[in-house]
Amino acid sequence: MKAAMEKSATQIKDGGHLKTGQDKRSFILGIALLFIAVIFGIVVTVVLVFVPQGDSEMMTDEVEIIPVPPGPGPARSLELLGLGPKLGPTGLAKVLYNETLEYGSVFQYGAGNIQLVVIGDLDIMKDAFTLTDSFNTRRMVVNAMLSPLQNEGSTFQTSGSPWLEIRQFTGQTILQSNYLQTYIQPRIDQSVDSLMTSMTARQGSPFNPEWLLRVFFVDVNHRIYFDQGLVYDDDDDQAFVNDIFSCQKIVFEPNATMPASPVLRSQLPLFLNPLHRFANHTKLFASEALSSSPTPPTDHPDPESLVVMYERFISGLRADGKTTWSDPDDGWRLTVDLLFTGHSSIPQIVRWMSLYLAAYDDYQQRIVQEINSLGNYTDITYEDRFRLPLTVAFLTEVDRIHHHSPLGVPRFVTANETVNGFHVGAGTTVISNLWQISNDPAVWGDPHVFRPERFFLDETSSDQYELDADKLQLHTPFGVGLRSCPGEKIARRTLFKTMVALVQEFQIVLPEGIEADLDQTGDFAEPYDVKYVKRV
C-alpha cells in the first residue's frame, strides 16, 4: 500500500495533472502540428495577398493537361488499319478524309503499339513539319526492306545526323538552281529526245504507253546519276527497269509506311532478289562514272554526274577535318533511294495526262497553239513555264485530281509535340493526307470537276491567262517540310518538258470507238491503248 502511494506521488506534476510517458509524446506532437498549421496559414495568406492574379494563372497553365486528338474507337481503328491493302493509297486517303468530317483536320487512330495521327490541313502540316525536327524521322517497313543496302552511310531513309548530311548534299546539287540548269536540264532534254524517237517508231498505231514511260523515267535519272542513258530495247536495261518496278510495287502498299507489317515482312525474301540485282546495277554504273571522271583541276569544277558530285562532297568534308557518315563512293546508295521511291510518279502522271488530252481535244488544240507560240520544244526550258499558263494549269489539274502521292511519306515522332492544340506523343506515326488538301471542297469548291482554269488569276478571261502562284502552291504533291521529296525539282522539270514535247510532236487520240475512263478510283490509270499521231 505504501509503495503504491509513493508511485502515484511521483506521477503528480505541473499543478496536479497526471502525465505518463505516452501523454508527453502526444503533447509534443500536438504542439508541432499546431506550429506547422500556423506556418501554412501564413504562407497561404502571403500568396493570396501578394501574388498577382496573372502569375497565379500562369502557374495553373503550366500543369494544364493537353488533350490527345479525337478519333474513332478501337473497333473502327482496327478496321481502318486493315483498309490499306484493300483500297490502296488513294482509296485509304478518301476514307481518312471522311473521318475528318467527324473528328476534324487532326485525328488519331490505332491499336496496341501502332498509333497514327492524320493531318488533313496544309497550314497545320506546315507548322508541324517546319517548326520542329521531331517529325523528320522515318521508321517504316520500307526501311527494313532497304536495310540490306542502307545499313551504313547517309541516305534519304536515315534520320538524325546521317540524314542531315545527305540533305546538305542535295541542297548543293539537285535542289540548287545552277546544278539544275547546267547539268540536270540537258540530261532531261536528252532523255525526252529519246522518248520522242521511240514514240515516233510506234506512232499511228494504238499501244499502251506504260512500258515506254517507265523506261523513260529510269533513263532520265540514269543520265543524271551516272551520265549514261538506257537503251530502250536492250535486254539488260529492260531487266533493270523491271527490278525497280518489282521493288517499288511493295513500297506503294500503304502498310509499308507503318512501323510494323507482318504481311509485308513475310514478302521480304521474295523482295531481296530484285533488290540486290537493282543495287548491283547501280553500283556498277556508279563505279564506271567515278573511274571515268577526271580529278577536279580547280576549286570550282564543272558539275558532273550525281555520284561524282557526291564523291567530291564527302571528300571535301573530310579535307576540312570533318567526320562523315558516308564514304566518297557511297553515292550509289542515294540513287537507290531516288529510283526506289520515285519510279512510278512520272509515268503515272504522264499516263493520266495523255488520257485527259485525248479526252479533252479542245484543250489539246489550245495547248499546242500556246506551245508553238514559243518555238520548238527543244528550245523551251522550265524557266519558260509561266509563259505557258494553260500547259502548266492542265498538267497541275490532272495531278490534283489523280494525286500521285496521296498519303505522302509518313513521319515518326521522336519527341512529345503539340499539333493544333493536341498532344502527339513520341513514337506516333504521322500521316499527311495530301489527297485531302488537293480535293477539299472548302478549298477548291468543285474538286471533282476537271477545270484547269481554276489555277488562273482570272478564270473568265478567254484570251489572256495568268497563273495564280498562290493557288498553285495549294497543290502539294511532293509534301512539305524537310522530309518533302528531294527529287521534286527534277520531277517538275521532267514533267513540264515531257508534256511540251509530246503535245507539240503528236496529236494524242484514243482508238476509234473507245471512250476515256476518267472516273477511275485506283492509284494508276488502268491499262489503255492510245495513238500518238505525228503532227506535220
TrEMBL record:
InterPro entries: Cyt_P450 (IPR001128), Cyt_P450_CS (IPR017972), Cyt_P450_E_grp-I (IPR002401), Cyt_P450_sf (IPR036396), Cytochrome_P450_fam2 (IPR050182). It comes from the Eukaryota. SUPFAM superfamilies: Cytochrome P450. GO terms for cellular component: cytoplasm. GO terms for molecular function: heme binding; iron ion binding; oxidoreductase activity, acting on paired donors, with incorporation or reduction of molecular oxygen, reduced flavin or flavoprotein as one donor, and incorporation of one atom of oxygen; steroid hydroxylase activity. The chain crosses the membrane at residues 27-51. One of its GO terms (biological process) is organic acid metabolic process. Heme binds at C485. Keywords: Heme, Iron, Membrane, Metal-binding, Monooxygenase, Oxidoreductase, Transmembrane, Transmembrane helix. Its cofactor is heme. The keyword Magnesium does not apply. Belongs to the cytochrome P450 family. This is Cytochrome P450. It comes from Strongylocentrotus purpuratus.
